[in-house]
From TrEMBL, chain A:
Organism: Lysinibacillus xylanilyticus
SUPFAM superfamilies listed in its UniProt record: MetI-like (SSF161098)
Name of protein: Peptide ABC transporter permease
UniProt key word Repeat: no
Subcellular location per the Swiss-Prot or TrEMBL entry: Cell membrane
Protein family according to the UniProt entry: Belongs to the binding-protein-dependent transport system permease family.
UniProtKB/TrEMBL annotation, chain B:
Annotated region (Disordered), positions in chain: 26-48
InterPro entries recorded: Peptide/Ni-bd, SBP_5, SBP_5_dom
The protein's name in its UniProt record: ABC transporter substrate-binding protein
Basic and acidic residues bias (residue ranges): 26-47
SUPFAM superfamilies in the cross-refs: Periplasmic binding protein-like II
Family: Belongs to the bacterial solute-binding protein 5 family.
Signal peptide residues on this chain, from the entry's feature table: 1-19
Alphabetic keyword roster: Signal, Transport
UniProt-listed PANTHER family: OLIGOPEPTIDE-BINDING PROTEIN APPA, PERIPLASMIC BINDING COMPONENT OF ABC TRANSPORTER
Pfam families registered for this protein in UniProt: SBP_bac_5 (PF00496)
Solute-binding protein family domain boundaries: 121-512
Length: 320, 605
């Protein structure tokens, strides 16, 4: 297994290299540059040209690429043109926000989806099953921004149960209990919204796995031995039915840094999704390339993790 | 399979019910609003911008202190560069308005007066300006404001490692600025400290623009005692002194900053006009999708950069007063009549270009029903512009200009006169030689209504027999738009865009021979003279200058190479617990923040 892991990690290197080349060229091909947005009657076009030269935009692309890639190898991903701080610091800040939000929503997703999936599968075709299916179809069909807006209006502005923007109350002093509570408080509403929208796949997989498992021989055997139904479900069926969900787990873990542009925009939550879109719109090359590289790496890592997890939870699977 | 269909139909049925509920809800809300509105609302759904006040002076007992809550409407986090020399994000400057390092007070024309911290004395014969600190002024950390703090911002902007846009043509007008920037001199030779309270700057030339903050004059102080030890190269812009604990001169000072999300300010006890009456100001980013609801539910006292197209969400609110003021901007329609010569850095007018027919251009202007667009799409918050100077600049704006009001008959007449006639009888005019004639318009993609507005104009033009097609076939994204327009893309005959004018109305940077931003590329000897006249030594006399501005506006209107289309009104919703808040530009940055008071502990719901 270790051999395989090492081999897959080694294969990532050329993959990431090709990705870096593609994204670098595509980013430069976009019309405009980070200074296009600065034009007003009071800015001097000659100064903008100077800044472009200073930033090296007129060098041939392979020279620019060489500078960028050699710096990246030394851990220097450059500086954001719009935020004027190191890209690593910027992504660190936003990434952390997104990480906590995604983690909390992932927890909520499992908390909602697993019981519902199990119930739907166990009481197949009952009214309960049908309601759960209906719920999962509706939550699948509702566009993210619609539900987010509805929630922010109802729970944020009408009922005033939750804060409506930001990640933390500005008045709270970092390090105090109030500060951490305020952070969690700010996460709750977006996380719940995100979670409600993300349960469909897990519910449906779990439901069909459980329905399948019910007719399997090992269940019949257990039942004929007189094992109580409750125990059959918790001990035998549930464990086996979780396998397809474990298959996603790798992607779920690496996906924690993905972010959602809609949720972040509507909840005024500065995270990775917004950073990505905004960096594209403002042509913030260093941020665009770094983020694409990061996402590319995470996707490759996610699939590797998923395979490793599968081989651990399912002894029938061996990766060699 | 049958089962699936059943399920699907159940789902669909539920959807319809939900949708129906939604509609009911909406209608109910509408009638409710309608009832509330009836007394004030006119028959037409149009705002009379002249009735929007600039100041809120609520009656009622005030509370002591209190927290003013400000919603900063933006869908992207602010950048958090709190330095007037280094920032370039409009939202950062919105926040800095509360803390400002502004040296000068300005009047309604944005001309520098003596009422601020600094006093400006211009010696036009010797091309010198003297800036004096009036009285004892202290920074927010208690340190005195000195002449060094007035010089330091020039040393930041002129620094060889400075990466901002402000080291520009204007700045090089200061004697010695270029030598300093090129690293040939230790200091800027044209800037001298006279004593602890005053400095003298020597310029290469002095024009009337200096009173608008032009010619290289810088309007802000920088706290040298805090910044001097931080290198300009890379370090300054990332430093805590800029991002976490900036030292300032304004009514409020930074207390806590949550980067990109919110800022907490507290009253500055050292403020030169006395400590503000409000204890704290909290500024929070609010997504544009929910600011209307936020004002309604009393979450904020003031919303800055409120999206005009959400005016409806404020109508009929009993807890919110709506202030309005003209924006420093105008939209325009430009015609390509030349090219920019990059090598020689000047515009070259091409007499033979397709759009170089003044009758054609005027006809295009007369054919546009801008009045209706302003009323129907912007509820009167945008009106037809008659001039290239926004009316805010009262002494320079020519209110008597007719401009291009909607008159399709006149447009047709002009086209007939110019020889654009419909030869083949298809309703579309051919060019002077009887060949097919189609004009290509570049328009920018922005808000949801932009597409509809452009389509409406195209219909207008079609009515007078002009075929107008969109460059690239659709609206163009911002970056691509300016790339194409600046490069004089042959696919563009005319283009619709807008300028934010800033506070210096001088048109030289936008319409002169050397201006790269003169995107129509129109150049003429008489125009050059007029532009020079506006910033000439003679124009140091305000009357003369105002006359020069008028002459230029009339000329531009007549030649119609750039037709102004719309002026805008900015709306600022304010909760009714706020007392003494004034948005008049004459008071915008100075003299009023410390007078704000609150009449309740929390915003009124």
């Amino acid at each position: 297994m270790w051999k395989t892991i090492v081999r897959r990690v080694l294969v990532m290197i050329p993959q990431l290299f090709v990705l870096s080349l593609l994204i670098f060229i595509l980013a430069k091909l976009m019309p405009g540059d980070p200074f296009t947005g600065l034009i007003t009657p009071e800015t001097d076009p000659a100064r903008l040209e100077e800044l472009r030269i200073q930033a090296g935009f007129y060098d041939p692309w392979y020279v620019q690429y060489y500078h960028w890639i050699t710096n990246a190898f030394q851990g220097d991903f450059g500086r954001s043109y719009t935020y004027k701080i190191a890209v690593s610091t910027l992504i660190g800040e936003r990434g952390l926000n997104t990480f906590w939000l995604s983690l909390l929503s992932a927890i909520f997703v499992y908390l909602i989806a697993i019981p519902l999936g199990v119930l739907a599968g166990r009481y197949q075709d009952s009214l309960l099953d049908k309601s759960i299916t209906l719920y999962s179809f509706i939550s699948y069909a509702i566009p993210t921004f619609v539900l987010s807006l509805i929630f922010v209006f109802i729970f944020g502005y009408k009922l005033m149960w939750f804060p409506t923007s930001g990640t933390v109350d500005v008045g709270a002093d970092p390090g105090t209990m109030a500060y951490y509570w305020s952070k969690i408080y700010h996460l709750l509403l977006p996380a719940i919204t995100y979670a409600i929208l993300g349960t469909t796949a897990i519910i449906q997989y779990l439901r069909s796995e459980i329905i399948d498992a019910k007719t399997q021989d090992y269940v019949k055997t257990a039942r004929s031995k007189g094992v109580p139904m409750r125990k059959i479900y918790t001990r035998h069926i549930f464990r086996n039915s979780l396998l397809p969900i474990a298959a996603f787990l790798g992607f779920t873990i690496t996906g924690l840094l993905g972010g959602s542009i809609f949720i972040e925009t509507i909840f005024g939550f500065p995270g990775m999704g917004q950073l990505f879109i905004h960096s594209i719109m403002s042509r913030d090359y260093s941020v665009i390339t770094s983020l694409v590289m990061l996402y590319g790496f995470l996707t490759l890592l996610g699939s590797l993790l998923s395979d490793i997890i599968m081989s651990i939870v399912d002894p029938r699977i061996r990766i060699d | 399979m049958k089962k699936n269909w059943l399920l699907l139909s159940v789902v669909l049925a539920v959807m319809f019910v939900l949708a129906a509920c939604n509609n009911d809800g909406k209608d109910a809300a509408k009638t409710e609003d309608g009832k509330k509105d009836k007394p004030e609302q006119s028959e037409e759904n149009k705002v009379d911008t002249t009735t929007l006040p600039m100041e809120i002076t609520n009656e009622g007992d005030v509370i002591k202190g209190g927290t003013l809550r400000v919603g900063l409407v933006t869908d992207t986090p602010f950048k958090g560069i709190f330095s007037w020399e280094l920032y370039d994000d409009a939202y950062d400057s919105e926040i800095m308005k509360y803390t400002t390092n502004n040296l000068f007070a300005t009047d309604g024309d944005f001309l520098i007066t003596d009422k601020g911290i600094g006093k400006l004395d211009v010696d036009k014969d010797n091309k010198k300006a003297k800036i004096t600190i009036q009285g004892d002024v202290k920074w927010s950390d208690g340190q005195p404001l000195t002449a060094e703090d007035l010089i330091y911002p020039y040393e930041i902007i002129g620094h060889p490692d400075y990466e901002g846009v402000r080291y520009d043509d204007d700045f090089k007008n200061i004697v010695g600025a270029e030598e300093y920037h090129d690293g040939k001199a230790e200091t800027i030779s044209g800037i001298k400290k006279i004593d602890e309270k005053s400095i003298e700057i020597t310029f290469k030339k002095v024009s009337p623009a200096i009173y608008s903050g032009g010619d290289g004059l810088w309007g802000y102080a920088a706290p040298k005692h805090q910044l001097a030890s931080i290198p300009v190269k890379d370090a300054l812009i990332a430093s805590d002194a800029v991002r976490k604990n900036p030292v300032t001169l304004g009514a409020f000072k930074f207390d806590k900053i949550k980067n990109g999300e919110s800022v907490q300010l507290v009253a500055n006890e050292y403020y030169y006009q006395g400590k503000p009456k409000v204890d704290k100001v909290v500024i929070e980013v609010v997504p544009s999708s929910s600011i209307g609801e936020a004002m309604k539910s009393g979450k904020y006292d003031i919303a800055t950069s409120f999206p005009t197209n959400q005016y409806d969400s404020l109508k009929g609110l009993s807890n919110v007063a709506i202030l309005g003021r003209p924006e420093l901007a105008y939209s325009y329609l430009g015609f390509k009549v030349g090219k920019y010569d990059k090598a020689n850095r000047k515009n070259i007018f091409n007499e033979k270009s397709k759009m170089n027919d003044v009758n054609l251009r005027q006809a295009i202007g007369y054919a546009m029903d801008i009045e209706s667009v302003g009323e129907k799409f912007y509820q009167g918050l945008r009106v037809r512009a008659n001039s290239l100077i926004p009316p805010v600049f009262a002494s320079y704006y020519d209110g008597t200009l007719e401009g291009y009001h909607y008159d399709s008959e006149k447009a047709k007449e002009l086209l007939d006169k110019a020889g654009y006639k419909d030869v083949d009888g298809d309703g579309i005019r051919e060019d002077k030689d009887g060949k097919k004639f189609s004009i290509r318009l570049a328009a920018m993609a922005g808000s949801d209504t932009d597409e509809a507005i452009v389509e409406y104009y195209r219909q207008n033009w079609k009515e007078v027999g002009l075929d107008v097609q969109l460059t690239t076939g659709r609206l163009i994204e911002f970056n691509a738009f300016y790339d194409k327009v600046k490069a004089d893309d042959p696919e563009i005959d005319m283009f619709m865009a807008a300028w934010g004018t800033g506070t210096n109305p001088s048109p030289v940077g936008l319409y002169s021979e050397g201006a790269e931003f003169n995107m129509s590329r129109y150049v003429a000897a008489d125009l050059t003279t007029m532009l020079e006249d506006i910033d000439s030594a003679k124009a140091m006399d305000p009357k003369y200058r105002s006359e020069a501005f008028r002459t230029w506006q009339e000329y531009m209107s007549k030649t119609a190479t750039t037709i102004p289309t719309m002026f805008r009104t900015e709306i600022i919703p304010v909760n009714k617990r706020v007392k003494n808040y004034n948005v008049d530009y004459a008071n915008d940055t100075q003299d009023h923040l410390q007078t704000i008071e609150l009449t309740a502990d929390a915003p009124i719901k």
